[in-house]
Sequence to fold (238 residues):
Amino acid sequence: MSLARQSIVVIGGSSGIGLAVARGALAAGARVTIAGRDVDRLNAARQAAPGLEIAPLDITDEGQLADCFGRAGPLDHLVVTAGALIGSSALVDLDAAAARNAIDTKLIGSLLAAKHAARVMRPGGSIGFTSGVLARKPTSHAVVKTAINAALEASVKQLAKELAPIRVYAVSPGPVDTPSWRMLDESARRAMFDKLATSLPVGFVATDDDTAQAYLFAMQARALTGAVLDLDSGALVA
Fold:
């Protein structure tokens, strides 16, 4: 299944994995719209990759989602990589407001995006969520991330059945060298990734372009649905 001339929306597409997916799909001949909250980053992404269309959008606002997909018209694929940054925290120190924001953004936001995309999606199209290795590899002080990712993975099989013949899948990355780590200075960031690399079977930390390959494959694999693709550098078995 070629992506040429297909219509794709990537929510969270202004940077990182989402932008890498958008660039890959654009290079394959798709019509690609990137959506996100930060208009400046959307414009910068479009400037760097001419041909991308942009849609300012808050994934937690259902009205904005309905408007976005109403304007998008017939759709072939949706990819959701949007999420909220939330730090590690012991349960006894849990910030409830931060937890609710993370759940509203990544879990509820993904489900609402799927709800409205499904209404305009062509049969055989796909909806791709983004989970993470914590869904099945519990780690101390990460209960909110674990709960969100595990819930998304559970949703994949249920929605693959409910929304058929629309296909539903998730990609589960491990550590990824994305702009979300750029709050660290370059030397601290490199030291962190070098240390992480020694713990991974592949011996390196994936880039956003590495990770985007899973979504590009899933969009074109017409027999794939109800699956979670682990593209995690081997983190689950480390």
